[in-house]
Write a structure and sequence with these properties.
Length: 246
């Protein structure tokens, strides 16, 4: 495969039917960019045939790689493992449930390539979710932005593109994948947001409900607030030269 510019990281928990379809959607949606892309699936303790589907996809397509956890460790852990294994200059995170559209990725990559930003976040248009999920998402999004002084319009959108060098500075904790733009902003990242498509889930089942999105997330918000309040912010304006090595 030619030089890798983009690594697509997709956490997987029991998505056996969607894996080959996601590879196909990436191949068709990325166009010429696919020639310089790797798809990295991270098996987060699946109990169905997801791992077998990943291995099959990798055997059929050299652009596909996979990692396997010994047990279910959560989405933040799966993303962290994928980020660390990624080889591209840019990293894209995406859900494996096909609700995100890989055809939106080239426009996100173009924004970063143009030097306009370091991170691009998607804003889901015409969301294909239940009323309960839409309402809980709106409440959670507003609460996070209010408490963290953020302006991310769709915190719950999993489609994001980053410069990999910025991700390497972060230490991930459980639940922190929801706050990646905020954590990257602390590291000096410039954030842009663009509209992206959103499709209904047709295969598999969602892995979380209202409770674990709202109530567990509140604890994470206060953790991020603590990080913001204790973040080191300084500039070295001058320093003595290093001693002569001789």
């Amino acid at each position: 495969m030619s030089t890798i510019r983009l690594s697509i990281v997709a956490p997987v928990k029991n998505e056996e039917e969607n894996i080959p379809l996601l590879v196909k959607a990436c191949r068709e949606g990325l166009g010429e960019l696919y020639d310089h892309t790797e798809i990295l699936f991270v098996d987060d303790g699946s109990t169905d045939a997801s791992l077998d589907r990943m291995k099959q996809a990798a055997a059929e397509d050299p652009h596909v790689r996979w990692l396997q956890f010994e047990a279910n460790r959560g989405q933040s852990a799966a993303l962290d493992a994928g980020f660390r294994a990624a080889r591209g200059e840019l990293v894209c995170m995406i859900d494996a449930d096909l609700q995100n559209d890989p055809a939106d990725i080239p426009a996100m990559v173009a924004l970063v390539d143009a030097g306009e930003c370091d991170c691009v976040c998607g804003i889901r248009q015409k969301r294909q979710d239940s009323i309960v999920r839409k309402v809980s998402s709106r409440i959670g999004n507003g609460t996070r932005n209010w408490l963290t002084h953020e302006t991310i319009k769709d915190v719950g959108c999993s489609l994001r593109v980053f410069r990999r060098e910025l991700l390497s500075r972060l230490k991930m904790y459980r639940g922190m994948h929801r706050f990646l733009p905020t954590l990257l902003r602390l590291e000096g990242a410039r954030i842009e947001q663009i509209p992206v498509s959103h499709h209904p889930r047709t295969l598999g089942k969602t892995k979380y409900g209202v409770g674990n999105r709202l109530f567990r997330g509140l604890r994470d918000i206060f953790a991020v607030r603590w990080m913001q309040s204790r973040h080191l912010d300084y500039t070295v304006v001058d320093q003595s030269p290093p001693p002569d090595a001789s």
